[in-house]
Amino acid sequence: MAESVSLSCSGCGDTFERKEYNVVDADDYYCSQECRRKEREHDCPWDDCSYTSHSQFGIKQHHKRTHGVSLTEEEFQCDWCEETFTRQRSKVRNWDGTFCSPECRTEWLADELSERRMGEDNPMFGQTGEEHHNWRGGYGQNYGEGWLDARRRTLERDKYECQDCGMDRQSHKETFGYDLEVHHIQPFRTFSDAATANQLSNLITLCTTCHQKRENRTE
Q1: How far is C-alpha 205 from the chain's CA centre?
Q2: Would you say residue 198 has pLDDT above 80?
Q3: Range of the domain at 199
């Protein structure tokens, strides 16, 4: 007759017996399936939440769905607006910076390009008109000091909608992958100074498609 072996339950701590041939070498032993389930359950870390799950994945799903906070997200600081935001590390595109939104990344890039294209550091410094590789009657992407503020104010004034077709900001980001564009009604190249060219009365919010249509009409 097989002998019984005394074991200590890793769940409730009680001592129980089991036939020797049913005992395998293990770190934990349980006196019942109930104790096994309880020991393997994971508790939700949210204060005053009694939810439990048999898996960490279940806890993560519940926490995000019920409490609106992902357990897999970390805090980051935006390189442009310096606001703190949370996101999964795998979804943070930090090869050229860490940004809380496509808008902040767009504005950061515009600022970087502006700095690189201004002054004697620009390899095309001093070259004008047809000598410049981007010659289109003087057209360029450097809209001078204060451009980012003028762009922001134009977007706010136009309620973040294309003034030609009505496309809103979110739809534009989903369609094109970046923010709405701001267009100079009278071409920037026709002004002698950026401050005058960047007056709000000369700026209008457009989607990429409508912006291209207007640009084609002025070429």
Answers
A1: 23
A2: yes
A3: 142-218
